[in-house]
From TrEMBL:
Similarity section: Belongs to the HepT RNase toxin family.
UniProt protein name: DUF86 domain-containing protein
A molecular function GO annotation: RNA nuclease activity
The species this protein was found in: Archaeoglobus fulgidus
Keywords of the record: Hydrolase, Nuclease, Phosphoprotein, Toxin-antitoxin system
A Pfam match: HepT-like
Length: 119
């Protein structure tokens, strides 16, 4: 999630905006990868990102509210990947802080799970 801290607060130059999009995309992808690893570690079947988020909710790692927020983040990631040149820049830039908060909350939940798993 280091990519989150590298996002400038108000990117204006095209290179800053491109970097912001890339860092946001990378951070969300990392969270989805962590989700898949957790699902596997809990002995469940790894599915697509949305399915993995639902599985994490079912096994109690995240609540419904965080699950919906993570799905929104993944939707934003998909939008960035598949429509990069036609993305509403301002919409994405307006989402940066919210996405940061969601991913930080997710990381805290993951840290809690890892802490409980320690012998």
């Amino acid at each position: 999630m280091e990519a989150l801290s590298e996002i400038p607060p108000n990117p204006e130059k095209p290179i800053e905006i491109s970097g912001t999009f890339y860092n946001l995309l990378t951070a969300i992808e990392s969270a989805m990868d962590i989700s898949a690893m957790l699902v596997k570690d809990f002995g469940k079947r790894v599915e697509d990102d949305y399915g993995n988020i639902e599985t994490l909710q079912e096994i109690g790692i995240i609540d419904e509210k965080l699950a919906e927020k993570l799905k929104m983040c993944n939707g934003l990631r998909n939008w960035l990947v598949h429509r990069y040149n036609r993305v509403d820049r301002q919409l994405v830039l307006n989402s940066v802080e919210e996405v940061k908060e969601i991913l930080i909350e997710f990381i805290k939940r993951v840290e809690d799970v890892l802490e409980k798993a320690k012998p």
